[in-house]
Design goal:
The complex is a heterodimer. Chain A is mostly helical. Chain A has ten helices and no strands. Chain A folds into two domains: 48 residues; 225 residues, MetI-like fold, CATH 1.10.3720. Chain B is built from 14 helices and two strands, in the order αααββααααααααααα. In chain B, β1 and β2 form a beta hairpin. The model of chain B has no long low-confidence stretch (mean pLDDT 92). Chain A: Its main location: membrane.
Chain lengths: 300, 285
């Protein structure tokens, strides 16, 4: 009983202290109205930002979930039943194949930059500048380039392959940068210990450095998946918008393109909002996963 | 044997690292080689400053689109930057520890939402809202700027918050010790000290806004004429490419690619100023 009373007492005390500091704060704002207004505006802006986010996510979920019918997931697409299944399968194919190509290139490039390149090397400077440039290019420019190069110049036509290659270029700088940071975070003592045990450079990289950098690299790859799933402008004129599951040299739309086509036609807005729900769920899962990966990095 | 393997892999790594160089080279080559002849044929002045875009009459002036891109981006900056700056101040200085993690992942989520979803939201929520409040069709400069203003929030908040956090704590404490209030210390001491980092964040936001395509197409109306008011529709450069590329042939198609070239040059200029700003921010620290 006594301990309880003491706890209660201290709680009351701390409450008192809190409220007195709060009134102090208010009094100070009365003396300095400018400061009060600024503090108010800061809070207001934060509330606004998060209110917009909650409204956006909530609206799309509430609007779209009722239309997530089983028909929407049937394998056949036709003008009456605008099934999203073909686009879902295409999205999956494109994500996997893009990563199969982009991840090794990006990780190898990061290995070169961190483990091999000497400081002040001119090639390294050029690589960094170009990677920076790539990451600033908007997706529509990638789309134009993909159309000119893969679709027209290489004569692949609008095809999944052209879309995949365009996406590879788009996510490459992202994977490169995150992998580079992950490799840099591996302590030099690991490398020295491995060399000291007589391992060669290559062996050190593949058995010591890369495994310890995996969470960081994974976080980058997860971010890349997010970009691939949401991409529209770069794919519109490279992979095309046919609603089917083609072979690699045929045209097929991804989920995001499916959503764009539906909402720009304006005939199937409800199905478009259901597609938005599917995309949003993917994005939420990806965010959750990358958060988890980041936590593992923080733990070391 | 081992030596050959070591050497061979080193070359493999180097080739992979050169992939980005090759990509940028190819992008420049193909865009410029396909776009510049068209600009030459139309005439650079007629192309850049012509106010009539009528492909059926062979008139290819993209001045309305350039102006529209600048207007829409300007509007987005007006909407987004103040909110983003204040929110980053909140995140860096006011946010209670308990809710920091969820809010931070909220901002990351905002950055991860695809532009097509933002566009859809704009189309079904913001456009009808503007139509009912102000009249007109709703698809307008205002809708595009508001939507882009929301989309650039996470782009600006992230770097701005870390710029604010990298200002030495002693600046803040020194200002408090001189009798300044918390707000005065933040807004008159911390913000100016983080100036170059914040500027870089804003430039990053400008780059994102000017290159945004799908969201803008869905809410801007896409009329190819000089912008006529905040409630009237307009067409940005990015929208010009996407709306007409599907059926364009011959000269029309080349003119669209040339529009892409102009957009690309805009982006290159923004990128260049961004890397200059970043270097300055690094030197300042």
């Amino acid at each position: 009983m006594q301990t309880n009373a003491a706890a209660l007492n201290s709680q009351v005390n701390s409450k008192k202290r809190n409220s007195s500091s709060l009134t102090d704060q208010l009094r100070s704002y009365l003396r300095h109205p400018g400061s009060g207004i600024l503090a108010f505006l800061t809070g207001l802006a934060a509330v606004l930002t998060f209110a917009v986010l909650i409204f956006l996510v909530g609206y799309i979920l509430i609007k779209g979930i009722p239309y997530l019918t089983p028909e929407l997931f049937s394998f056949e697409y036709n003008s009456e039943n605008v099934s999203l299944m073909p686009s879902l399968i295409n999205t999956f194919i494109m994500t996997v194949l893009t990563l199969v190509i982009a991840a090794p290139i990006g990780i190898f490039a990061a290995i070169y930059l961190v483990e091999y390149a000497q400081k002040g090397n001119r090639l390294v400077k050029v690589i960094r500048i170009t990677a920076e440039t790539l990451s600033g290019i908007p997706s529509i420019v990638f789309g134009l380039f993909g159309m000119l190069f893969f679709v027209t110049a290489l004569q692949w036509g609008m095809s999944l392959m052209a879309g995949i290659c365009t996406l590879v270029i788009m996510v490459l700088p992202l994977i490169m940068r995150t992998s580079e940071e992950a490799l840099k975070a591996v302590p030099d003592s690991y490398r020295e210990a491995s060399f000291g045990l007589g391992a060669g450079k290559l062996r050190t990289i593949f058995t010591i450095v890369l495994p310890s950098a995996v969470p960081g690299i994974l976080a980058g790859i997860i971010l890349a998946i997010g970009r691939i799933i949401g991409e529209t402008a770069a794919l519109l004129y490279t992979s095309g918008t046919v609603a089917q599951v083609p072979n690699l040299m045929g045209s097929g739309r991804t989920l995001a393109l499916h959503m764009y086509v539906l909402s720009s036609e304006g005939l199937h807005m409800n199905q478009a909002s259901a597609t938005a729900v599917v995309i949003l769920v993917f994005v939420l899962v990806i965010n959750w996963l990358s958060g988890k990966a980041a936590k593992r990095i923080a733990k070391g | 044997m081992n030596k050959i393997k070591e050497r061979g892999m080193k070359i493999v790594f180097m080739v992979a690292a050169c992939a980005s160089v090759l990509a940028v080279f190819l992008i420049c080559l193909f865009l410029f080689a396909s776009g510049i002849p068209a600009i030459g044929k139309i005439g650079p002045l007629e192309f850049l400053f012509g106010t009539e875009w009528r492909p059926s009459n062979d008139m290819y002036g993209i001045f309305p689109m350039i102006v529209a891109s600048i207007y829409v981006t300007g509007g987005a900056i007006l909407v987004g930057v103040p909110v983003a700056l204040l929110t980053s101040v909140f995140m860096a200085r006011y946010c209670p520890k308990k809710i920091y993690r969820p809010l931070k992942s909220g901002i990351e989520l905002m950055a991860g939402v695809p532009s097509i979803v933002y566009g859809f939201f704009g189309l079904v929520v913001m456009v009808p809202m503007i139509r009912e409040t102000f009249g007109g069709t709703g698809t307008s400069w205002l809708a595009a700027s508001l939507l882009l203003g929301i989309m650039i929030l996470p782009t600006i908040i992230g770097p701005t918050e870390s710029a604010l956090r990298s200002v030495p704590e002693s600046y803040y404490e020194g200002s408090l010790a001189l009798g300044a209030t918390k707000e005065r210390s933040i807004f008159r001491v911390m913000l100016p000290a983080a100036k170059s980092g914040i500027l870089a964040a804003v430039v990053l936001g400008i780059g994102r806004a000017i290159g945004e395509t799908m969201a803008v197409i869905m809410v801007a109306g896409n009329q190819a004429r000089m912008p006529q008011g905040i409630l009237k529709g307009l067409r940005t450069m990015t929208a010009n490419i996407v709306t007409e590329m599907g059926y364009a042939t011959g000269m029309h198609r080349e003119a669209l690619i040339a529009t892409g070239v102009v957009l690309f040059v805009f982006i290159l200029i923004i990128n260049l100023s961004l890397s200059l700003l970043n270097r300055r921010a690094e030197n300042a620290n």
